[in-house]
Amino acid sequence: MAHYMSMSDSQNRRMPDFREARCPSRVYEGSRDDGGCVVTVFDSALPQSDSNPRALSVAASQSIKDCCARFDWGRGDAGALQLAIALLHDVSGDADTALRWYEHFAKTYVRQLPATWAVPELDIALWLYCFQNARPGA
Question: How far is C-alpha 65 from the geometric centre of its chain's CA atoms?
């Protein structure tokens, strides 16, 4: 028995369908340096410039929900929650989606990231699609 319903059956039509990711050429990269944790976004469909790659903004994610003044991953702290909000919002373009899923995304995805990582936007969009479309109790 399938645990997912089609996107057309979903009540929340603002939810991104991973097959129609907003920027499938985007890759998020995280690394640690002396200044803390840095997350950048590179879009291979755009020319490399001062704005590509760009830093993922902690401040922008704090305007949605302020959990922490920094990003972090690999553990279940407030920095991981802030990164979860930032990634979900950047991928979905929707603050409500980020707020609905950030705690679960931090627990199941961000917490598992290694010290240095690269994640295509499509992976995050697929995570959203699967959790948004899972049947209750499945």
Answer: 14
CB 122 within 8 A of CB 18: yes
Nearest CA among 92, 78, 84, 74 for reference residue 132? 92
Residues contacting 117, CB < 8 A, separation 6+ = 29, 30, 73
Which residues are 43's β-sheet partners?
Answer: 26
pLDDT tens string, the chain, 138 residues long: the values are 333 333 344 444 455 454 555 666 899 999 998 878 999 999 988 889 989 999 999 999 999 999 999 999 998 899 999 999 999 999 999 999 999 999 999 999 999 999 999 999 999 999 998 887 776 655
As a whole number of angstroms, the distance between CA 14 and CA 39 comes to 26
Q: Is residue 137 packed enough to be buried (19+ CB in 10 Å), middle (13-18) or exposed (0-12)?
A: exposed
> Is residue 29 helix, strand or coil?
strand
**Bridge partners, residue 117, by sequence:** 30
Q: What is the pTM of this model?
A: 0.81
